[in-house]
Design brief:
Elements: H1 2-31, H2 34-43, E1 48-52, H3 56-65, E2 72-77, E3 85-86, E4 89-92, E5 104-107, H4 113-119, E6 129-132, H5 133-140
Parallel strand pairs: 1-2, 1-5, 2-4, 5-6
Antiparallel strand pairs: 3-4
Length: 142
């Protein structure tokens, strides 16, 4: 019985942490100006991206990038979303769909960077950068 209770508490804590991190990321995206975003992507020489994760953070980022002419969101990569499009942007799935080449895959999903780093070389050339959204924020030092 104690093991079950402990496991339940661990799951609750993990979900609370995920919610806190999501809220922080959403606030950071809101705080970034268009000019800051342009500069960050220019520093990585990135013009086309795929957003890994079509949840709240990925959607907010896509919305923010919509009006920035120097960066184009080509598609989302998401294994859970069943929609074929979100706000006019295609949603593709690893292991199912062909993933067209982009300059970078921007990972917005909490705690999945290791998985993405291990899987992405199967889909992209060495030219494609794998970038965590947290790296974008550190670049801007928000």
């Amino acid at each position: 019985y104690r093991k079950i209770q402990t496991k339940k508490l661990q799951i609750e804590l993990r979900e609370k942490n995920r919610a806190i991190i999501t809220e922080e990321r959403l606030n950071k995206i809101d705080a970034m100006s268009d000019e800051q975003i342009k500069n960050v992507f220019a520093s990585y020489d990135v013009h086309t991206i795929a957003i890994y994760g079509a949840g709240a953070v990925g959607r907010k980022l896509e919305e923010k990038l919509r009006d920035i002419e120097t960066v184009q969101v080509e598609y989302f990569i998401d294994k859970l979303v069943e929609d074929e499009e979100i706000a006019g942007v295609r949603v593709l799935r690893m292991n199912i769909d062909f993933l067209p080449e982009v300059d970078a895959v921007l990972v917005t999903v909490y705690n999945e960077m290791k998985l993405v780093l291990s899987e992405m070389p199967n889909y992209y050339t060495d030219y494609c950068k794998i970038v965590s959204i947290d790296m974008i924020f550190q670049e801007e030092k928000l």
